[in-house]
Amino acid sequence: MKRSQKKHLNIAMIAYTEYLIDPRVRREAECLADRGDNVDFLCLRQPKNAVDSKLEQWETIDGVHVCHLPMYKYQGGSSFAYLLSYIKFFFLAFWYINGLYFRKKYEVIHVNTMPDFLVFSAIIPRILGCKIILDMHDLTSDLYGLKFQFKSTKPLVWGLRLQERLSAAFAHAVMTVHEPYRQILISRGIPAKKVSVLMNTPDNKIFSLDDRPTGKLMSVSNVDNNSSATILYHGTLVERYGIQLIMQAIDLLRKLEPDLDVHMMIYGRGEYLPQLQALNRELRLEDKVYIHGKHVPMSEIPGIIAKSDMAVVPYIVSEFNQYALPNKLMEYLAMGTPVIVTRMRVIAEYFDNEMVVFFESGNVADLAKAIAYLTRNPAKRRAMAQIAHQRFVQKYSWAAMKLDYYKLVDTLAGRDPIASQAPQNQHNQSVSIR
């Protein structure tokens, strides 16, 4: 088959997400736009309080044509309401993507999970020859079983496992975020040659040592102070991410090691924000813990990270979370910030004790001990940051990852992947905190 020599591709992307605050989908969409492809992205409507101005249905953001479909993300605790929200988005995506396809003749449609069955919204384009990518950020059935642990939901979890296999069979290619997930998908019957890994590493154009005041590892003002430290957490605020453990650890340190002056900054928003604010008042930590609780443009996040002495990623371990490789962890390391992190299976596969400080899941005393240790040892903070940068950040950079993505897209589209990888355009990065 003769490969197309077309200068650019027409590509559509679909995700049940708020585009402005989802870094993975933005990196994928923008890297295609950077090299000259025409990219349309169908997503949820952005909450009114999350942006500075009201968004139009169609907006061009950093070269990507973003369509905000007329619905908001469901934020409640009902498993059935969650499923109904997914179904509603599916039909909206089906209506929009088919109308757009007949006008734009997409060569590739890239569908992001969750839900997996969203991939079937592109059934008509697929029948007519469009190639389909299914990007599995999480394993839907596993996360659903974790979020809604009731007997009545078990049949739904079994159904989700079935639709996971059917969705993967429908797609021409399947992507996921790391090798352990790839191995799980293969063990569930998806052909190995069909599944590839696109790691969720941060964009090195946004997160780099250059964003620190002097472009050096750990160049914060109090790096040599062994009695005070500023801790950072940024990202989605949900209970299973364990942000409350950091606050409890700071309260414990205030009692056990009063000579330490430890402060914390929390940036982000989510369903657990009111509980965190209440805990802050209950523990009387208002002078120690700052909770921003609002939307923050991604352009500001490197500066926020640069003001911290260390970061904590305190996920509470579960069967599902064992496979998490948090994007925020990699953003901290890219910025040269040392990290304290829960010991989880996938994290332990990529990092060792020289690169991060591990603590036991849910153990406030163990976390407090780790915070005190790094606070009192600024030299250790610098050494950790340097080793992690050398062993992980440089090896798994987005600059390298996106070349694999280009190759996959071009191969599916029948285009020479070698001649089409060089970016043609550069856009200002105005991403938002997730």
| Total domain units | 2
Mean pLDDT across the residues is 85
Report strand order across the widest sheet.
Answer: 3-4-2-1-5-6-7-8
Uncertain segments are 424-434
The helix-strand sequence is: EHEEEHEHEHHEHEEHEHEHEHEHEHHH
Instruction: Give the CATH level 1 class of the largest domain.
Output: Alpha Beta
Give the helix proportion (percent range): 25-40%
| Number of helical stretches of at least 4 residues | 14
Q: Strand percentage, roughly?
A: 15-25%
Tell me the number of strands.
14
Shape: globular
Radius of gyration: 22 Å
CATH-defined topology of the largest domain: Rossmann fold
CATH architecture identity of the largest domain:
3-Layer(aba) Sandwich
Structural class: alpha/beta
Terminal CA distance reads 42 Å
Outline the biggest β-sheet. 8 strands, mixed
Name of the CATH superfamily of the largest domain: Glycogen Phosphorylase B
Which SSEs are present, and which pair or pack?
Blueprint: E1 10-15, H1 23-34, E2 38-43, E3 58-61, E4 64-68, H2 79-104, E5 108-112, H3 123-127, E6 131-136, H4 140-147, H5 154-170, E7 173-176, H6 179-187, E8 195-197, E9 228-234, H7 243-256, E10 261-267, H8 273-282, E11 289-291, H9 301-306, E12 310-313, H10 327-334, E13 339-342, H11 345-350, E14 357-359, H12 364-376, H13 378-393, H14 398-413
Parallel strand pairs: 1-2, 1-5, 2-4, 5-6, 6-7, 7-8, 9-10, 9-12, 10-11, 12-13, 13-14
Antiparallel strand pairs: 3-4
Helix pairs in contact: 4-5, 7-12
